[in-house]
Amino acid sequence: MLWSKTFIPTLKEIPEGAEIPSHVLMLRAGLINQVMAGAYTYLPLGLRALRKAERIVREEMDAAGAVELLMPSLSPLSLWERTGRDKAFGDVLIRVELKRQNRKVNAVLGPTHEEIVTDLVAHHISSYRQLPITLYQISPKFRNEERPRFGVLRTSEFLMKDAYSFDTSLEGLNRSYEAMYRAYCRIFDRCCLAYIPVEAESGPIGGEASHEFMVPANNGEDKIVHCAACGYAANLERAEIGPRRPEQPAVTEPAPLERVPTPGASSIDQVSRFLNCRPEDLIKTLIYLADGQPVAVLIRGDHEANDNKIRRALGAKEIQLADPATIERVTGAPVGFAGPVGLKEKLTIIADYDIQFMRNAITGANEADTHLKGVNLGRDFNVERFADLRCAQDNDPCPRCSGILRLRPAIEVGHVFKLGTKYSEALSARFLDPSEQLKPIIMGCYGIGINRILAALIETTHDENGIIWPVALAPYEVVIVPVNVADEKSREAAFQLYNAFQKENIEVILDDRDVRAGVKFKDVDLIGFPMRVVVGERGLAQGNVEVKWRWEKAPQLMPLDKVVAEVSAWIREERETGARFKAALYGSNG
Ligand code: ATP
Ligand code: MG
């Protein structure tokens, strides 16, 4: 491609509203253009990169035995009503009303395609002989995200690879899941992402039934914990915490129980400021409704309650924080003054493990504007059970080894999930087993955000000058820059190289613009083509050109007649392994 013949609207200034590097750089490098909040045009360079990511995903899905199809974005609302997801998705679901002659059709723009694919299978698969099968597509998804932001990381319309596996047994599901998990690792390896598969909430199947593929990044909207010693990794919802230890030698002398006025101070922050103590000296008493029954949950003041852990510990189907009326009834006080001592109603009290080590704690007094000091377990209150009920924090003990957990923000690029029979039962996708018994098909679902692959990569691999692409995803692999296009010899040499690279099937762009060299170099670095070949008058006089990887500081000289063979060989290696890119960006070959 000749630069002058394509469309690369680079920007000098940081565009308004772009907060994070990937968003800024994708706009500035002329990869995307915003149409409205959450909707972007992919410009020619951006589209090339997107198509390359898509191709890697497709190749690995095919290699894993998944079968491609393409489902429409439009589907009838009735299908979503059958699974209850019209309600579950809430405002995220984009509904459209279609006028068809004299009637109206209620439809949905698909946020994902479980309903449509399960309905398809329900109509065409009826026997164990037709199973297992994994179907996939790469198609636009629509979600009315409340806060579309951060460029293409979170948009209302995005490109997803979504796959669905259909099996006759749990063992079969495990095999299908394994195959997708391995394909995901190959995909993200080939895309040169520094990713970590983390355990995620398991849903209906339980156990290790869901993993998210996360790219640690400062601006990630998710949080993961990771143990460098043993590799344990989980998202914050799911992360277990190892054996707890008291933080400091415990105070031995129990203080007398004391009632203190705390007018207007109900939150942990307010109370600790008011009583001049640390949040970790407080016990939060949270009143939940577990399947409708009120229970009290004790969490140390500086810790965050984890609803999933609490739900599991209580063996409840559903939990939610109690409403103010219930709280007032069971504690005798308005919201913010609950405590384990002297509750009005006899409740089940469960406590997080860290509560065990607290001495002379501060709690609500179950009385408006009042707290208790010197509260001690055993003497003043008892709990039914201790359990892991809080979110992990930075520096917590690892649940699998003696290491410590690190908490880091991350971007979710993919998700694999064992669904079970939720959709097959709702949509009657059943099969006859060998003994002619009708059973629901066991499903898994597997998503990858294609746009997020690009954004996550740019977010983690850029420098002060711009993007740094690996060869596998770069819009073009090689850029040729004649320093002075007005110089006939330079022009000629540059075009010669350009033709020769094309013959080698290298994706090459020639910057034939008649602009200052400084402008070209700035743009080339901003876009971040992996290999730059500079044709200068002085070098050419000696029969040399300069070659440089985007991630290298200094260029090296190479004879004009050697450069195409040498660089083409490097590019082919990099396409396969990304080894140079990974070594330079992540300091490793893996
Ligand atoms: P998130 O928690 O970030 O909203 P999700 O868990 O709802 O994502 P899934 O339903 O698991 O997303 O979708 C599969 C993949 O699609 C995600 O792993 C992510 O890469 C991508 N994705 C989801 N929502 C968006 C979005 N609004 N914009 C771009 N990509 C998205
Ligand atoms: Mg997800």
Polypeptide structure, described:
It is built from 16 helices and 31 strands. It is an alpha+beta fold and 590 residues long. The longest helix has 21 residues, at 170-190. Helices cover 28% and strands 28% of the residues. The site of magnesium ion has 3 residues, from strand 21. Residues 212, 412, 415 line the site of magnesium ion.
Summarize the structure.
Helix content is 28%, strand content 28%. The protein has 590 residues and is an alpha+beta fold.
Biggest sheet details:
9 strands, mixed
Structural class by sheet pairing and helices: alpha+beta
Count of runs of 4 or more consecutive helical residues: 16
Low-confidence runs: none
What proportion of the residues form beta strands (DSSP E)? 25-35%
Bound molecules: adenosine-5'-triphosphate, magnesium ion
Rg, Cα atoms, Å: 29 Å
Distance between the termini: 32 Å
Topology:
Layout: H1 21-28, E1 32-36, E2 39-42, H2 44-63, E3 67-68, E4 74-76, H3 77-83, H4 85-88, E5 94-100, E6 103-109, H5 114-124, E7 133-142, E8 157-167, H6 170-190, E9 196-199, E10 210-216, E11 222-227, E12 233-235, E13 258-261, H7 268-274, E14 283-290, E15 293-300, H8 307-314, E16 319-321, H9 324-331, E17 348-352, E18 361-364, E19 370-375, E20 385-387, E21 405-420, H10 422-426, E22 430-432, E23 438-440, E24 442-449, H11 450-460, E25 462-463, E26 466-467, E27 478-482, H12 488-503, E28 508-510, H13 517-527, E29 531-535, H14 537-541, E30 544-549, E31 556-559, H15 563-577, H16 579-586
Parallel strand pairs: 3-7, 15-17, 17-20, 27-28, 27-29
Antiparallel strand pairs: 1-2, 4-6, 5-6, 7-8, 8-24, 9-10, 10-21, 11-12, 11-21, 13-19, 14-15, 14-16, 18-19, 21-24, 22-23, 25-26, 29-30, 30-31
Bound molecules: adenosine-5'-triphosphate and magnesium ion.
Residues 112, 143, 145, 154-155, 158, 160, 412-415, 447, 449, 451-452 line the site of adenosine-5'-triphosphate.
